[in-house]
Structures are given as C-alpha cells and as structure tokens.
Amino acid sequence: MTSAQLSHASMADRAAIQDVITTYSQHASQGDWGTVLSLFLPEAVWEIPHLGMYLDGREAIAAALSGFMAQMDYVLQLNAPALVRVTGGSAEATSGIREHGKSKGVDEGFEYLGLYEDALERTAQGWKFRHRTFRQIGTHFTPLRPG
Q1: What's the CA angle centered on 81, arms 75 and 87, to 5 degrees?
Q2: Could you read off the pLDDT of 15-28 as tens digits, one per residue?
Q3: CA nearest 98: which of 78, 74, 118, 76?
Q4: How do residues 41-94 score in pLDDT, each as one tens digit?
Q5: What distances in angstroms separate CA 105 from CA 38, 90, 118, one per listed residue?
Q6: pLDDT tens digits, residue range 82-99?
Q7: What is the DSSP string of 52-99?
Q8: CB–CB of 58/37 below 8 Å?
Q9: Taking the alpha carbons of 112, 37, 33, 91 in that order, is the dihedral positive or negative?
Q10: Which residue, among 109, 137, 120, has the nearest Cα to 48 in the 3D structure?
Q11: Other Cβ atoms closer than 10 A to 137
C-alpha cells in the first residue's frame, strides 16, 4: 500500500470511529439502547472509575444505561471531536464529553463533564467499542425554575 493509500485509509478509519462515538452520544441521549449496544462488542467493557463501576459485557452495560436513564427526565450528551490513533485493526480514541439534563421528578439540572477513553476494534460490521472508560472532570447540579 502506498503512503497516500495508507493516509486515505487512516482518514476513513478516523471518520468511521468519530461516527461511532457521535452515534453513541446521540442515541444515548434518546434512550435508544438497541443502537447504542450495537456499537459495543459482545464482550466489551465499560468503566466509570469514580463510581467504582466495571461493566463486563453488553448485558451489564445495558442494565447500567437503563438505570442511569431512570434517574433522569432527559439528557443531552455532546461529544467533542475525538483524537484517534489507528493501528491496523485496533484504534484508541479520546474525546471530551458534556452531558446536560434534568434529574427525574425534581427541579434540578445536572452537568457531567469528562473524557471518554476508548479502545475500538474493526469488525466486519464496522468499528466497535472494545473498552470504554469515562473519566470524570466535574459534576454540577443546579436548581431549575418550575415548569
């Protein structure tokens, strides 16, 4: 493969990986767990160290995501463009994340800030998360006006 072909393949991989990350954020905001879970390998791991969570496999990830959403009236997750490094059929990506939402049943808003550190693997169905870690930077809760 020529260096131009390598560069093109790498750019295409980077774009595809960014699409996986953005698809996760948009569909997680909507509670579309079928789409979100399809982005993970069956044996994937999702870690949230500041909460002491180590979720092993899609079923554990699904349960945690549903549990989080049960505590919210709504959420919108915004991700920053990722820094992506591709090595053959594996990749690493780091992206900033901001989640804004409303706590369920109370006039309280929240904001979660952090970084996602991702390990991905190329499959016949496209890039998939092998390991996803959320590193917290900060959390803010604010009162909301009723209505």
Answers
A1: 125
A2: 999 999 999 999 99
A3: 78
A4: 999 999 999 999 999 999 999 999 989 989 999 999 999 999 999 999 999 999
A5: 30, 42, 33
A6: 999 999 999 999 999 999
A7: TEEEESHHHHHHHHHHHHTTEEEEEEEEPPPEEEEETTEEEEEEEEEE
A8: yes
A9: positive
A10: 137
A11: 12
pTM to 2 decimals?
0.89
Q: What is the DSSP letter of 124?
A: T
3-143 CATH pick, 3.90.1150.10, 3.40.50.880, 3.10.450.50, 3.20.20.70: 3.10.450.50
Secondary element (H or E) of residue 41: strand 40-48
Give the CA distances from residue 117 to residues 34, 46, 109, 134, 136, in Å, rounded to whole numbers and listed in that order.
22, 10, 26, 7, 11
Q: Which amino acid is at 144?
A: L
As a whole number of angstroms, the distance between CA 73 and CA 94 comes to 28
* Tokens at 137, concatenated: 């930077």
Q: How many Å apart are CA 62 and CA 70, to the nearest integer?
A: 12
Contact 79, 112 (CB under 8 A): no
